[in-house]
Structures are given as structure tokens and as C-alpha cells.
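We give the chain.
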Amino acid sequence: MGHLTDSLTTRQMAVFEFIKEKILARGYGPTVREIGEHFKISSPNGVMCHLRALEKKGLLRRVRKQERAVARAIELAPEILAENKGLPLVGTVSAGMTTLAWEQCDRIDFAERLNQKNYFTLKVAGDSMINAHIADGDYVVCRKQKTAQSGQLVVAQTPDGEATLKYWFPEAGQVRLQPANSALEPMYVKDASVAGVVVGVVRHLE
């Protein structure tokens, strides 16, 4: 983004940062009135002058009324938006000590990694996979496929149409669906099929 903002005046940079913060925080940009109130600019034309300059320099895009129900909605330019997608990747944490590099500029976009056409998500019910750190209420992200290697964690469908989250172990004439809970016994079925292989787990702690 640096090369785009190099030519901005201090005032233009402040206005741009205010707009970017609003868009990233709440999903849509500020109104001309909000910008004017924040920077104590009494004239709407004064605000529009800054917006035109930012648009001309490729930082903003003002959506016209025919494109969006809200007249002159403000959007970040696609290049700027791409740089701010995802969460900051500040390092790798281990069982020992590490340093969190808060100023590191890398970002990781989980939506880009997990939001793919052949992926689907299921909410976990029950504790049969608790020893695999998959708890009741978690979400598993699965890659849609009909086969799996022995030992892979899969969403399997039993002959009666029920779906279950288990480790997949084909054996002679049957399939062992192994839970990750020492209190539970494995399931043995003859005609189970694979609906998908688990590629990620999402847990919200708040």
C-alpha cells in the first residue's frame, strides 16, 4: 500500500485512515457527514474534495447510485482491501518461549484457505472426538470426497443414512469407525461411505 499513499497530504492520509478503519470495523464506509463531523469540516464540499483526491489516487472507489441503493457509497479500492483481508500472522507459538512480532506485516486469510467450492462445514454434536480436541459445538471444515485413506478423520455415512465424525479404518468386509473417546466403542459397519475428509476445526471461545 505504501506506493499508493506516498503522495497523500497529512490531511488526506488522516481521512483515508478514518475511512479504512470504518470499513474494516463495520463493513461499510462513513457518510460525508460523519467525515465532516470527525474532522470538523463544516462544508460537505470540503469533504468531497478529499474524497475526489483519494479516488483519483486509487485508494477509494465511490459507488454511484445506480450501482448501489446508497448514493455515493464509499469503498476501499480492491488493492487496498486485499491487503487488509484476514488476520495478522504474528509468529509461531510453541510449548517453549517465542516472540510475538506484532509489527509483522504478513496476514493469513482463513476464508481464502477454507472457503473453497469443494469444502463444506458441519457443527459437531457430542463428545465422541474429544480426545482429538474436537468438542461439542465446534465446527469441522471438510473437503468433499468419496474416498479416504486408512486412519483419516472423515464424515462417514452409515447405511441408514446417518452421518458420523470418526476415524476411517477399512477392514476385511467392513469398516471400523473409530471415535476419539476412550469411553466409547468403535462402530463396525459393512456399507459405510465417505462424505468428506476433515481439513480444519473452528472453535469460538467467547
Q: What stands out?
A: The longest helix spans residues 10-26. The two ends are 33 Å apart (CA to CA).
